[in-house]
């Protein structure tokens, strides 16, 4: 669902500035679920407006107002007006992992290769 800005007055974000934009919404998310606040691609493309922590998480035990932490990554000021669509919200199940300490991890083809490691040395269509 779309999330809309609900500030008392328009908010102006200078280039590089970030702000917590209120939505006017509070919600009760059931146990076992979370809200994921995601940026809007159109705002990023047109205005350079993104989210600092994307996706943001709304835990099921949070009861306060939902805010969206926006950042102006563009070169011009951006005005966020009351009623502007500023983000999207997805409610999704959460799986709680149970961590188990082990002495050794099972081997994989990738191993400890980090950023950009997957896909190296592979021919197109082979993996």
TrEMBL record:
Enzyme Commission number, as recorded: 3.6.1.23
Protein name as annotated: dUTP diphosphatase
> Reaction(s) catalyzed by this protein?
dUTP + H2O = dUMP + diphosphate + H(+)
Q: Which GO terms describe its molecular function?
A: dUTP diphosphatase activity; magnesium ion binding
Superkingdom of origin: Bacteria
SUPFAM superfamilies noted in UniProt: dUTPase-like
PANTHER family in the cross-refs: DEOXYURIDINE 5'-TRIPHOSPHATE NUCLEOTIDOHYDROLASE
> What is the enzyme's main class?
hydrolase
State any GO BP term from the record. dUMP biosynthetic process
Q: Which organism is it from?
A: Geothermobacter ehrlichii
Which UniProt keyword terms apply here?
Answer: Hydrolase, Nucleotide metabolism
- Upper taxonomic lineage: Bacteria, Pseudomonadati, Thermodesulfobacteriota, Desulfuromonadia, Desulfuromonadales
Q: Which residue intervals define the domain dUTPase-like in the entry?
A: 2-119
Query: What family does the entry list?
Result: Belongs to the dUTPase family.
Q: Kindly indicate whether the keyword Transmembrane belongs to this entry.
A: no
Segments for region (Disordered):
107-127
Q: Which InterPro entries match?
A: dUTPase, dUTPase-like, dUTPase-like_sf, dUTPase_trimeric
């Amino acid at each position: 669902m779309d999330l809309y800005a609900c500030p008392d007055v328009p908010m102006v974000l200078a280039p590089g500035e970030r702000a917590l934009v209120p939505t006017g919404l509070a919600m009760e998310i059931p146990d076992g679920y979370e809200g994921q606040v995601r940026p809007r691609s159109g705002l990023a493309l047109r205005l350079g407006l993104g989210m600092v922590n994307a996706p943001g998480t709304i835990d099921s035990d949070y009861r306060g107002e939902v805010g969206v932490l926006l950042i102006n990554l563009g070169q011009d000021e951006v005005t966020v007006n009351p009623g502007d669509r500023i983000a999207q919200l997805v409610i999704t199940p959460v799986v709680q992992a149970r961590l188990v300490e082990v002495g050794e991890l099972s081997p994989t083809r990738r191993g400890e290769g980090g950023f950009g490691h997957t896909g190296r040395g592979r021919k197109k269509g082979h993996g």
